[in-house]
């Protein structure tokens, strides 16, 4: 195999499930901030005959991300990136969530653009939460800073997420950061297209992953009340979509978001969104 796929957040969940599929015709590079889970994931993939290795990297640091791409391309060109790394409201402060989910996406996207050539694809993982942010609350001017002044972008995003009661800040940061992922992926489509490359986002709903179960009491399970399919999605189900989007076949698919939520948004409506926001 003469091509490489980078999977961020590849130590488990949907990232590892996606690597298992893409490893059929790519060398796989898994990355995360923790080495032990990465080593275990690589051993798991290798036991299935997949050529895999790992690189420990901090996606909030552009230098670390650039080093990740340089190392990954050493044996074969990077043809695809599936950016599944991220944190949820139960995993940290508003600042941590903004830095990992939003700034991390900027760093991965810009490094991907620098590496992109004909046929390259970047798939950023967003969330149904990004679709639930009211349009009047979308800070479009702040989003535009993403490619001009990352430091100022970060400051304003954290300030935006830190309005209202402190208990709501992590949830606000999560919705805001994932809305940004959706919009930024669309905004950068022209730059990728100029290189014959693609970029898009995929927004999962409630999935049976470690992160999804962690958020069960804070809303992920309650969303299922509104879903057409009254169950959590399986990691292999979202992995099939992520791998397809990052593959060769959907070569005209770019600049868009694909919502994979078991019909949750279709059944949610305005009343449901308000009820979820109020916790009623």
TrEMBL record:
Keywords assigned by UniProt, alphabetized: Oxidoreductase
Pfam families reported for this sequence: adh_short, adh_short_C2
This protein's record includes keyword Hydrolase: no
Protein family per UniProt: Belongs to the short-chain dehydrogenases/reductases (SDR) family.
Name listed for the protein in its UniProt record: SDR family oxidoreductase
Origin species: Gordonia amicalis
Organism lineage: Bacteria, Bacillati, Actinomycetota, Actinomycetes, Mycobacteriales
């Amino acid at each position: 195999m003469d091509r490489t796929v980078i999977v961020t957040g590849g130590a488990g969940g949907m990232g590892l499930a996606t690597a298992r599929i893409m490893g059929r015709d790519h060398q796989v590079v898994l990355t995360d901030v923790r080495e032990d889970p990465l080593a275990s994931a690589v051993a798991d993939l290798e036991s299935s005959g997949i050529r895999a290795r790992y690189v420990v990297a901090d996606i909030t640091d552009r230098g670390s991300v650039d080093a990740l791409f340089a190392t990954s391309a050493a044996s074969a060109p990077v043809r695809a990136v599936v950016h599944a790394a991220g944190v949820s409201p139960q995993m940290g402060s508003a600042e941590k969530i903004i830095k990992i989910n939003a700034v991390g996406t900027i760093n991965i996207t810009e490094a991907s653009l620098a590496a992109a050539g004909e046929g390259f694809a970047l798939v950023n993982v967003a969330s149904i939460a990004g679709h639930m942010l009211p349009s009047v609350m979308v800070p479009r001017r702040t989003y535009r800073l993403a490619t001009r002044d990352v430091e100022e972008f970060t400051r304003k995003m954290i300030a935006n997420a830190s309005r209202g009661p402190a208990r709501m800040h992590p949830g606000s940061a999560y919705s805001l950061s994932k809305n940004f992922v959706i919009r930024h992926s669309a905004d950068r489509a022209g730059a990728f297209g100029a290189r014959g490359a693609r970029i898009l986002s995929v927004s999962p709903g409630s999935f049976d992953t470690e992160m999804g179960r962690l958020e069960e009491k804070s809303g992920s399970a309650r969303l299922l009340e509104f879903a057409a399919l009254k169950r959590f999605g399986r990691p292999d189900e979202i992995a099939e979509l992520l791998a397809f989007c990052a593959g060769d076949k959907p070569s005209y698919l770019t600049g868009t978001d694909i919502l994979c939520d078991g019909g949750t948004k279709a059944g949610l409506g305005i009343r449901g969104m308000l009820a979820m926001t109020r916790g009623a």
